[in-house]
Structures are given as C-alpha cells and as structure tokens.
Automatic annotation (TrEMBL):
SUPFAM superfamilies: Globin-like. CDD domains: FHb-globin. Pfam families: Globin. This is Globin domain-containing protein. Belongs to the globin family. It comes from Capitella teleta. Keywords: Heme, Iron, Metal-binding, Oxygen transport, Transport. Residues 1-137 form the Globin domain.
Amino acid sequence: MSEQTIQIVKATAPVLAEHGETITRHFYQQMFSQNPELLNIFNATNQKTGRQQAALANAVYAYAANIDNLGVLTAAVQRIAHKHASFNILPEQYPIVGKHLLEAVAHVLGDAATDEILNAWKEAYGFLAALFIEVEEGIYRESELAEGGWRGTREFRVVNKVQESELITSF
Ligand code: HEM
C-alpha cells in the first residue's frame, strides 16, 4: 500500500465511523439486489437486526483507523477468517463485495467522495481482501490435509437418526 493511501484512509476513518452503518446498509441492499445468490449464505436474522451491518461497519472502521499499525488487528482477522471459512467464502467473492462496498461509500459520501479518496479505499480494500484470502486459504488447506479432512462441501449419507430429547436429534 502506498504512503498516500495510508494517509487518506486514516484521515477518512472518522467519516466512516459517522456513516458506517448507513454505508453498510446501502451496501447490503445493493449487493443482494445485484447478486441475489449471496442471500443464501448470509444469515437473514443478522441482516434484519442490523447485527451484520454493524459487524462489517466496525471491522472496516477498525481497519481504517489502524491501517498504519495492522499488527493490532491480527486476532480480529483470524476470528473473521474462521467465520468466513465456516461459510466456505471463496477468493472470487471478494471483488463482488469490494465493488458494492466502494459504490456504497461513494453513494453515501456524495461529493465528498473524490476520486483520490475512492482510489485510496479501493487499494486499501484490495490489500485487506488479499490478507483474508491468504488466511482463509491456510484454514482450507489445514482442513483438507487433516486426517479424514476435505475442502469445501462434501456429501454425507445419513445412516441413523436418534431423537435424544425434545430439542436434540443426533444424525
Ligand atoms: C475485506 C472484506 C470483508 C470484511 C472486512 C468482512 C468482515 C466480516 C465481519 C466483521 C463479519 C462478522 C464476524 C463475526 O460474526 O464474528 C463477517 C461475517 C461474514 N462475512 Fe465477511 N467480510 C469481508 C468479506 C466477505 C466476503 C467477500 C464474503 C462473501 C460474499 C463475506 C461473507 C460473510 C458471511 C456469510 C459472514 C457471516 C454472516 C452471518 O452471520 O450471517 N465476507 N464478515
């Protein structure tokens, strides 16, 4: 990342904090209308309650505010990457999210979103996306190489079903 990008992203972080949830709400609306296939992987309840919007807004803000000291985000990156891996998020999905996130920033900031600011955010998003992709690939590889492991989804055959209690069933 260039020094100029780091400076611009850090300087615009407070604006994101102020508009973060409006940006992410707009982002999800646009992304789901243009890429409805993604509706299947996101938890609809977390969308309705706003939990997912808040989680993404907080993550983007934390990234922007610490862009000159990314080491402090290591634990958060690991946690989010594991969450992503549990949904089998793939590298090719990052440009889709990036495109809609950038458009949402441009939409909500209006004239304040200059080309310079948008280009800096584009570069910064690409950097973060590459980091997640690398960490997630490590998780997928580890699962694949473990004894009896696999990558992605896999078919299973249910051989038995036991009603353990009113609430719990074992398969
Ligand atoms: C740099 C880009 C991204 C950031 C900063 C980000 C951030 C986050 C955060 C903070 C969470 C919440 C984690 C938690 O609950 O502990 C999350 C969950 C999730 N993310 Fe991402 N994410 C990014 C890219 C993506 C991409 C490309 C996809 C795939 C389309 C994706 C799909 C998901 C899903 C499905 C969840 C779980 C949502 C749920 O509980 O319904 N994310 N992400």
